[in-house]
Amino acid sequence: MEKTIIMRKIKIGLIGYGTVGSGVVKFLQKRHEYIRAKYGVEFVLRTLCDRSIHKKDTRGLGKARLTTKIADVLDDKNIEVAIELIGGLHPAQEIVTTALSRGKHVITANKLLIANQGKELFRLAKRQNRQLYFEASVGAGVPIIKTITEGIVGNTYNRIYGIINGTCNFILTEMTKNNLSFSKALKLAQEKGFAESNPTLDINGMDSAHKLAILAYLAFGKFVKVSDIYTEGITQISHDDIAYAESLNLTIKLLAIAKRHENVVEARVHPTLISKEHPLASISGIYNAFYLNANPLGDILLSGEGAGQMAAASGVVSDLLNLASHGEDTHLLCNLYSEAPNFRIRKIDQVKTRFYIRFMATDKPGVLSTITGVLGRYRIGINSVTQRAHKAAWAVPVIMLTNYTMEKNLRLALEKIQKFSIVKSKPVAIRMENLW
Ligand code: HSE
User: Fold this and answer.
1) In this predicted structure, what is the pLDDT of residue 154?
2) Ligand 1 mean position, distance from CA 291 (Å)
3) Which of 113, 133, 153 is the last residue of a domain?
4) What is the pLDDT of residue 3?
5) pLDDT at res. 4
6) Within 10 A of 153 (CB to CB), how many other CB atoms are there?
7) Are residues 274 and 171 in the same domain?
8) What pLDDT digit, counting tens, does each position of 56-79 carry?
9) 54, 177: one domain
């Protein structure tokens, strides 16, 4: 006898009808029959809230109540799931807290919120026996949250390397492959709906830092404060450095890096030179990638579209279906409230990496020995030196690759070198990472 699927209706309230919110509605409309038939569940959009709802295209929304009032979602006892897609800390924090306190499950794509308030919100969800899902907050539709919390459980994690901002990866790719200017590439990313409403958060690395804080917590069990993540964006990256890197068989990526060495955690976001042979080097455009080292599993690479309307909508809809299948059961994510003890954060000054350094220096004898003399005094070993031809007559680029060196030493050495009159502009230093 054929098994009859019991149809379950779940009433949802959606707050925020911007790029992602309208993507979620589009996704659910398009997949309505498929979801009903395959999973036996129907998501009913009961209320749609947006502060400019009257300016939005709301055709085809059936009986959904349209409102500008958040309370219309939070006060409605019939709404089982509140979806928060407005972003930012406030009033998102109040929305999520109130929804959980009133017994609603919550889905959010808000990385800023989870990075800053995750610990408290997970505890509240646990106390209320409600689910709090946030798959789209990192990697959009790439299921990195589920992979760490449910896919690879029982392992411990040593390292995370991530390309976790689609906008930056898109800009760097356009600058490298199509020789586009930084500002043109950024404009394109904005037009395509990849960038944040305030794109500064993308290009100054903060969006990646928020996402890294979430990943570090999931992987290491330790909340790393966003302020403890050393963060540098991509605005200083020039076409010259991209070209020099290419000629050294290297490519520049904005990497989010978290490492655990026993009871010490190090977390940083910065442009990084990596070998073109490494799989992360081929991750281009808006793709995100997560290269994790788990124990005993080993290395794992997960990649896909990490920004954009339907990618993010896919993450939210996955959360909805996961929620529908887990229902009231205690779920692994509920264990997120407990933190591993005794971890300490390694400050950037104490981190050891190799560096690519470009000096713009006068083309005359003695320049190299002056520079290397200072580097030597700070115990910075040089692996290779090349002098390049340059269109500017006032100086020539001198490119040095260092051995492993302590950040603090490099910073102090560059401060000294910069003061010499033979050095014509602030030296550019880009960290190199051996990902294998
Ligand atoms: N602005 C973000 C990015 C969107 O470019 O990655 C996805 O979180």
Assistant:
1) 87
2) 18
3) 133
4) 55
5) 56
6) 10
7) yes
8) 999 989 899 999 999 999 999 999
9) no
DSSP summary character for residue 4 = P
Instruction: Please report the atom of ligand 1 found closest to the CA of residue 196.
Output: 1
- In angstroms and rounded to an integer, the radius of gyration of the C-alpha atoms of the chain is 24
Q: Which residue's CA is the nearest one to ligand 1's atom 8? A: 307
Range(s) of the domain holding residue 282: 144-306
User: Does 29 reside within a domain?
Assistant: yes
Distance between CA 82 and CA 94 in Å, rounded?
12
Pairing outcome for strands 65-67 and 132-133: unpaired
Residue with CA nearest ligand 1 atom 4:
307
Is 337 within a domain?
no
What pLDDT does residue 349 have?
97
Let me know whether 151 and 289 are in one domain. Answer: yes
Q: Is there an atom of ligand 1 within 6 Å of 201 CB?
A: no
- CATH number for the domain including 294? 3.30.360.10
Asked if 215 and 296 sit in the same domain, the reply is yes
256 Cα distance to chain centroid: 7
Q: Angle, to 10 degrees, between the axis of helix 367-377 and the axis of helix 407-418?
A: 140
Atom of ligand 1 nearest to the CA of 199: 1
My answer on whether 115 and 64 are in the same domain is yes
CA gap 169, 260 in Å, rounded: 25
**CA 269 – CA 259 distance, rounded (Å):** 12
pLDDT of 334: 45
Q: Let me know whether 152 and 111 are in one domain.
A: no
Using the mean position of ligand 1's atoms as its centre, give its distance from the Cα of residue 165 in Å: 5
Number of domains in the chain: 3
Cα separations (Å) of 376 from 327, 408, 413?
62, 14, 9
Q: Within a domain: residue 127?
A: yes
Domain boundary among 133, 155, 183: 133
Question: How far, in Å, CA of 102 to CA of 142, rounded?
Answer: 30
Can you give the pLDDT at residue 332?
54
| Nearest atom, ligand 1, residue 137 CA | 8
In angstroms, rounded to a whole number, what is the distance separating the alpha carbons of residues 46 and 27? 16
Which parts of the chain have pLDDT scores under 50?
334
